[in-house]
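Re: that backbone. Tokens:
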């Protein structure tokens, strides 16, 4: 009976064991496994081909003997150099993108950047690339011109070289602005120094040293009165009359004509600061007049680019509630800066100023007319387009310049010609 009872208890325990799950989601073992899987694991137990991280040596050994891993190795064995090159390219792109976004063009230690890169759990490991060490990779960046590399006692330092066209254009623009500001400051300082030198010469000419002559019979009088002292102080430091300066600087012509009259009516001589302010205001007035005259001259010399037979695009948003916006048409007639445009796919003929029209660029091989510059009016064949610089290269097909290649023409200087006008 005792043995029968033991057999029955063992059967019950085995049945319970079979029905219960081995490791449920909330069991301590499952929670412990998930905690271990968090964060970075040891690199030597990571399989880059299968992108699988093992927690210990036994798990890594079991993985390498598994069938999926063997299949991946067979695929890699077909072309191992291509696989390594792909991994190297992906590693470099990911590393440079993180480095450029995090540090821009600052000089930074290479190891610091690498530590931030490998902090991401799903990063591509360097042992799958052609570079065995970080030093080899840093030297590669220097040879390719991606970074400025230098070795110091503290390690390798790298500095990203930004070759983006927009960034380079923005840097050139800032350099021009800085140069203009610097030139302006230098001119002002030169003017101030010249004015100071002139004033020093005037003071030397006016003040002359004389010998002290004293009459022995003359009595010495000492006055301690405050009224006399106050009067002398007022005499020595008179109030500045800025109204005279403002009158002189309204317009440079008025200032130049009436300067003698205003100075003659003034009760005192202008100080160095006042004279500098006056000169600066007169200079600004002259520059403004020159700038306005130049703008008027350019406006007078401006010519219309509209010609018969050009294919143009309408950019008037309010015309007919936007019905013809972005519609194309052919120029039928030109009157000054206004052209009559026959809209394609419509019987409408619109009279529009050239301000509301823009040129149309055909596909490569199409016929265009040059609108501005030395070759204005010539027909040409479109050879290539430079989208980054918004320019085109053409070959002239008529006139004395036939066969000549012209490059870097802005989009605004050429326009497609309708086939009926060829």
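Recovered sequence:
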């Amino acid at each position: 009976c005792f043995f029968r009872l033991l057999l029955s208890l063992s059967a019950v325990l085995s049945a319970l064991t079979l029905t219960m799950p081995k490791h449920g989601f909330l069991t301590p073992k499952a929670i412990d496994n998930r905690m271990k899987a968090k964060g970075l694991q040891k690199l030597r137990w990571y399989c880059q081909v299968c992108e699988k991280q093992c927690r210990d040596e036994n798990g890594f050994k079991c993985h390498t003997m598994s069938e999926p891993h063997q299949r991946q190795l067979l695929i890699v064995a077909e072309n191992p150099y291509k696989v390594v090159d792909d991994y190297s390219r992906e590693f470099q792109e990911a590393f440079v993108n993180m480095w450029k976004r995090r540090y821009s063009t600052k000089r930074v230690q290479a190891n610091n950047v690498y530590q931030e890169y490998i902090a991401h759990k799903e990063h591509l490991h360097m042992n799958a690339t052609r570079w065995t060490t970080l030093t080899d990779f840093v030297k590669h960046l220097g040879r390719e011109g991606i970074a400025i590399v230098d070795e110091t006692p503290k390690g390798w330092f790298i500095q990203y070289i930004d070759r983006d066209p927009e960034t380079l254009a923005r840097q050139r623009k800032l350099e021009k602005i800085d140069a203009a500001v610097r030139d302006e400051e230098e001119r002002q300082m030169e003017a101030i120094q010249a004015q100071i030198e002139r004033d020093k010469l005037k003071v030397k000419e006016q003040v002359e040293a004389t010998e002290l002559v004293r009459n022995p019979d003359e009595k010495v009088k000492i006055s301690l009165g405050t009224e006399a002292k106050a009067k002398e102080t007022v005499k020595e430091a008179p109030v500045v009359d800025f109204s005279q300066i403002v009158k002189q600087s309204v317009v440079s012509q008025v200032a130049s004509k009436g300067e003698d009259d205003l100075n003659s009516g003034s009760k005192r001589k202008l100080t160095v600061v006042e004279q500098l302010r006056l000169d600066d205001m007169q200079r600004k007035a002259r520059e403004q007049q020159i700038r306005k005259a130049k703008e008027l001259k350019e406006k007078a010399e401006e010519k219309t680019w509209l010609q018969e037979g050009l294919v143009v695009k309408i950019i008037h948003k309010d015309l007919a509630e936007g019905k013809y916006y972005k519609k194309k048409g052919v120029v039928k007639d030109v009157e000054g800066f206004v052209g009559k445009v026959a809209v394609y796919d419509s019987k409408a003929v619109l009279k529009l100023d050239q301000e509301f029209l823009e040129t149309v660029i055909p596909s490569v091989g199409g016929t265009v007319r040059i609108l501005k510059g030395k070759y204005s009016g010539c027909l040409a064949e479109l050879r290539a387009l430079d989208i980054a610089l918004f320019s085109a290269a053409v070959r002239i097909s008529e006139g004395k310049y036939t066969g000549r290649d012209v490059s870097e023409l802005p989009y605004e200087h050429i326009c497609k010609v309708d086939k009926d006008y060829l």
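The radius of gyration is 43 Å. The mean pLDDT is 77.
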